[in-house]
Amino acid sequence: MSSARNPGRVVGYWYLLLVLLGPLRLIYIPNKLFVQGDAAATASNIAVHEWLFRFGMLSDLLGAVVLIFLVLAFYRLFKGVDQQLAVLLVIVGGVMPALINFVNVVSDAGALMVARGGGGGAGGAGGADFLSVFDRPQRDALVMLFLRLHHHQIVAAEILWGLWLFPMGALAYKSRFLPRFIGGWRIINGVAYVVLSFTGLFFPDYQDKVFIFSQPALFGELAIMLWLVIKGANPPAVEQSTAAQPA
Q1: Cα–Cα distances in Å, from 27 out to 12, 19, 97, 133, 168?
Q2: Which of 121, 138, 114, 135 is nearest to 53 (CA)?
Q3: For 30-80, how does the pLDDT look when each residue is reduced to its tens digit (9 = 90+)?
Q4: CB 3.0–4.6 Å: which of 26, 29, 134, 143 could bond 43 by disulfide?
Q5: CB 33 within 8 A of CB 42
Q6: Where are the domains of the chain?
Q7: pLDDT, tens only, 201-234
C-alpha cells in the first residue's frame, strides 16, 4: 500500500527522520567534544571542531521543523479517534518542544561564540570582540555555562516529551487500527520521561542511573516508529473514502 493511501506510514517516515537527526546533538557531540569537569578542554574541542558543533545546531533546527510535521501527521492519523486529544498532542508534542529546540540553538550559539575567543569583527557573523575583557579561564567557564543551560533546557523538555505520549498512547489504544499494547507502552514511555525530567531537576546525580533503568520504557518510541514504517496504519474513515472512490 502506498504512503499516500496510508497516513500511518507517512507518520512513520517523519518519525524515522526525527530519530535519525536527534542523536547528533544529544549523544554524539557531547561524547566527542565535552570533557567532564574540564572547561578548558571542552571549549578547545568546540573551537577546533567548530563545523561539527554547527551541524549539531543545524540538527536541532531541522529536528524542530520535522517535529512540527510529525505531529501534524499524527493529527491527520488520529483526528477521527478523538480530535481534542489529537490537538493536545500537536501542542504539547510539537509546538512547545520545537520552541525549546530553537532556544537550545541560541545557547549553543553563545557557547560557540565564546569558545572562538572573540574572533571576527564586531559586525561579522561570529564577531565577539567584546569578549576580550574576559581572560581565557573566564571564557571557558562561560562556555560551560551555556552548555549547562542547554542541558537544563533538555531536562525541561523531557516533561513535554513525556506528556505528549499520554494523549498519543490513549489515541493509539482507542484507535483499533494500532495494537493496543503500543498505546500502553507509549503511556509507560511518557511516565519514564517525566520521571527523568524530575530526577534531573531535583536529583541530578542520579539522572544517568534512572536513564539506564528506564531504557525498556523508552524503547516504546522505537516500537511505534518501526510499526508505522513497516506496517503503517489506516483510520477507518480513510479506508471508507478510498473504497467509495470509483475504480
Answers
A1: 22, 12, 18, 33, 25
A2: 114
A3: 999 999 989 999 999 999 999 999 999 999 999 999 999 999 999 999 999
A4: 143
A5: yes
A6: 3-235
A7: 999 999 889 999 998 998 888 889 999 999 988 8
